[in-house]
Amino acid sequence: MTKSCLALAFLFFVFALQLRAFDWETATSNGREYVSLRSFCLFYNFSYQAPAGNDRFVSRNTTGHSISLKLGNADIYLDGVHYVLSFPVEGGDHDWLVSRMDVIKLFEPILRPTEISGRRTIRGVVIDAGHGGSDNGATSRLGNEKTYTLDTANRLAKILNDAGLKTVFTRRTDVFVDLYERAHIASLYPDYAFVSIHFNSAMEEARGLETYCLSPRGAASTSSRYLTRGDIQKLPGNDDDTLNILLASMVHSEIIKLNPGDATADRGVKRARFVVIKQNVLPAILVEGGFVSNHMEAARVNRPDYRQSLAQAIARGVIRFANVMGDRHMQLPGLSPDQEISAPAPKPISLAPPPAPSGLAHDSANGTIKGGVTSKTGASQPVVPTPTPTTSIHKSKKDKNKKTVATPELSKPPQSAPAPAPSPATSSNSTAQTGASGKSPTSTSGGALNLSEPKAPAPSPGAEKAPPEPDEPPTVNIYPTGSTPPPPGSASATNANPSPAPPSTR
User: Which of 74, 111, 313, 371 is the most exposed place for a label (fewest CB within 10 A)?
Assistant: First the structure.
């Protein structure tokens, strides 16, 4: 047994070196670490051409993955799916920069899921129907969130059970369950995953689907403009950062198929510190299945066939996740003939419209964001790249005085042979074009990417004025419980909130 453990540990270390040994071009800006877009593309085998001006960078790699990103913007498309980065893409002296945290906590688990350390067989799912009892959640003239979430949860359980996964509920009836109790229930099932089901509410025009997982330690939540002291603390859910984002990615990529041909309904995979995900010791996500504050989506959510389709889409994502985690081959639930016809092909990323504003605009140490400007709504707006004097690309070098290297979290050996990562020699001899400034970064051999947890950064200036993050998704009830909604079709019913929807504050 001891020999087997040592052999497994050695394999973990060998595959960790693949990220570490690559000749990364790194940079530091305002105390945060970044890698150049060029070295990112080389490592993940994306084609690279120096970004020009304010154009969107679009590329595909040798294994069929696609990426689309923009300078000064945290909203990206990966394989046609909308994600919100922990930090916007920055502009350096020679090239665009992608944060090291996003490489480790988002791109690596999604692009190379079989190499995630901590993979374990998923035997079941804890299903959390949001709200309940005295807590109605969001309400519309047709119904309330607590009823829709419980119905969807029951449908999801049946689909998962039929596929071979066990299920546990945080609530089976219309009762109130404390948020911390929901996380405690999850802790009793260590080989399960956790899925919380909600339906959204905001201003009337807001619409679409969102999936949340926990923010990494040292990164603010998607809706926050500040890095607070709470964002620096390690939470129970941060132990599964890479598993959280992979589960969120697989579920979200399935639920957005409920809106074929409508890329604007993909509001993205986002980050938050809601109690049920931050206090959870399982891979955990929270799914927002539509806006009951939007009249068209409220009518859709009220339909049993839509809730069945939503449950089926969530189940497909969860089963895909369980298959990767345990090298299993559980069959995905089949789609009805209508759904098979309407399910979209992967979106051409070059034609995708700008994603809905994420609200992400983190203040850096000096209160600004290099490579972008912050709008009044909190959305990061792209700007034309300019040289950043305080941000320079350099090659990271090995610490010769360091006797041991901590095993990083991205060190699980793959079960199937992945596309080979470029070697340091490949990086040095690459014929890729130069960076945004027209100059090639200085190359030296032996560069490495620091895969350890980031050091605790200082809170943003003014962070003490930031409102506390909500314990669960906030609700904006257009028709509060006990009020009489206007009759369907009336002027007040169709124009209850005439002002445009602000960026998501979830």
Answer: 111
